[in-house]
C-alpha cells in the first residue's frame, strides 16, 4: 500500500479517462429516463377510448397530466442493463353521455407502478364536478374503469421499450 501522498501504480485505475470519465462503460452508469417516460407514456395512452355504443356515449384518454417518481436505466460494464422505475401516473380523460347531453372529464391515477412489484399498483378513476351531471359521471366513470387492461397493456409496452434502450 502506498504512503499518503505517494502514487502506487497498483492503485491507479487505467480505464478511467484523464478527467475521471467512465471509459468503455466499465463502471455503473445511471440515466434518468423520467422525461422520456412522460413523453412515451403520453404517446401510448393518448386516444384510448371506451367500447361504448356511440349512441350512448363515449370517453377517451386525452393524455398524461403528470408522471412523478423515478425511472432510471442502470448499466454495468456496458452490457448489463437494468430498468428501475417507480411511477405515479395521472392521466386526463373526457367524455360525453348522450342521454343527458353532458360532457364529463376526470383523471385516471395509477399509483405505485414499479419494477419491484409490477402487479401491485393502484388504479383509480375520478370525475371532476360530478355533481353537475351525476348520471353521466357515474356511467362514464364505470366505462373508464374498463380501460384498465388496455392502459396496463400500453404501460407494459413502455416497460419493454425502457428495457431495450
From TrEMBL:
Enumerate the Pfam families for this protein: Aha1_N
Q: Per its UniProt record, what PANTHER family does this chain match?
A: HEAT SHOCK PROTEIN 90 HSP90 CO-CHAPERONE AHA-1, LD43819P
Q: Do you know which SMART domains this protein is assigned to? A: Aha1_N (SM01000)
Q: Which residues form a coiled coil?
A: none
Q: State what protein this is by name.
A: G12143 protein
**Which InterPro entries does this entry report, sorted A to Z?**
Aha1, AHSA1-like_N
Segments forming domain Activator of Hsp90 ATPase AHSA1-like N-terminal: 30-164
Name of the encoding gene: g12143
Family, according to the entry, reads as follows:
Belongs to the AHA1 family.
Cite the SUPFAM superfamilies for this sequence. Answer: Activator of Hsp90 ATPase, Aha1 (SSF103111)
